[in-house]
Amino acid sequence: MTRVHIFGTQETVGRNCGIRHWAKLNDYLADRMLRSAVERQFEIVGEALRQLEKTAPSLARQIPDLAHAITFRNILIHGYTTIDDRTVWRTIKESLPGLRKSLSALLDRTGDADLARGEPKE
After folding, report:
1. 26-74: per-residue pLDDT in tens?
2. Contacts of 71 (CB under 8 A, 6+ apart)
3. Of 78, 90, 100, 109, which residue is the catalytic one?
4. Catalytic, out of 61, 73, 86, 117
5. Please, what sign has the CA dihedral across residues 10, 15, 19, 25?
6. Binning pLDDT at 50, 70 and 90, where does residue 112 land?
7. Is 78 annotated in the active site?
8. Phi-psi category of 121—alpha, beta or left, where left has phi over 0 and alpha has psi -120 to 50?
9. Catalytic status, residue 73
């Protein structure tokens, strides 16, 4: 299940990263459905990382800004009336590429059996 969390999170991050290549801030702000889809993907990322933190804390600690991603998920879910769309867009542009690289590196450093135990391979 740990590999599923990491790989699934990486793919979800990739979907939101891709938006920055074809949409501009004004496109994002004008399209409620796009904003909802992006927010949902962030919720999935935050929840997957929260589950990873529970099931494989040693792996989760290797992800920079883990706490920030989980907190962001909580804000989107519980503070939906106060969501700042520009902050969400800035997160896509500034934070997601680094998270994607961190997840890729974590997958590269770990093997399937090691992931099942929550430990990196030597």
Report:
1. 999 999 999 999 999 999 999 999 999 998 899 899 999 899 999 999 9
2. 46
3. 78
4. 73
5. negative
6. low
7. yes
8. beta
9. yes
- The answer on pLDDT for 81 being more than 70 is yes
Q: Give the percent of the chain with pLDDT over 70.
A: 87
Q: How many CB atoms are closer than 10 A to CB 76? A: 17
Task: Kindly state the DSSP code that residue 63 receives in the 8-state scheme.
Answer: S
Residue type, 80: Y
